[in-house]
Known about the structure:
single chain, 5 helices, alpha/beta, binds ligand AR6, six-stranded mixed beta sheet
Amino acid sequence: xxxxxxxxxxxxxxxxxxxxxxxxxxxxxxxxxxxxxxxxxxxxxxxxxxxxxxxxxxxxxxxxxxxxxxxxxxxxxxxxxxxxxxxxxxxxxxxxxxxxxxxxxxxxxxxxxxxxxxxxxxxxxxxxxxxxxxxxxxxxxxxxxxxxxxxxxxxxxxxxxxxxxxxxxxxxxxxxxxxxx
Length: 181
Ligand code: AR6
């Protein structure tokens, strides 16, 4: 099922599987520093894209936490996959918020550099990496809104959220951003 909230700051919220996005020019992946695949959304993106994606990732030589790399998108309808490496949650005192914001900002920067107007993003770090969703949602929408102001080539950012609780947390975060709280 897909539900879409009204766009705000060019940010849309959708409920469902990011690999079904048929509008995005680039799909952001929640990767790990090896860039060699994994579970969660990373596994789903590599399955949908096919083996060509892993071949492209192999030559990149990994990526630091807080950063991102761009490749083609294999069989996915998008033109690019952007592999963003979010932080593992360690309790909040290990720079997690800055690293999470940084990987979103770098993703939008890379998308803009590749001429992508529409970008699909997952809730990076909110699964296997254990980042509390309520806090991650505020960081995510704030970082993406800020990066879109900085890199206006990106006109729409679509967060694909897996499950009602994650969707609701992002909805509240977007509401807070809009009301300036
Ligand atoms: N579409 C949209 N969201 C999804 C999908 C999907 N198909 N599948 C899962 N999610 P996670 P992380 C949600 O664990 O926490 C991998 O092994 C999920 O419910 O995919 O950044 C990597 O290789 C959660 O809300 O990413 C790394 O080792 C969000 O996507 C590690 O996991 C992110 O969950 C990265 O962990």
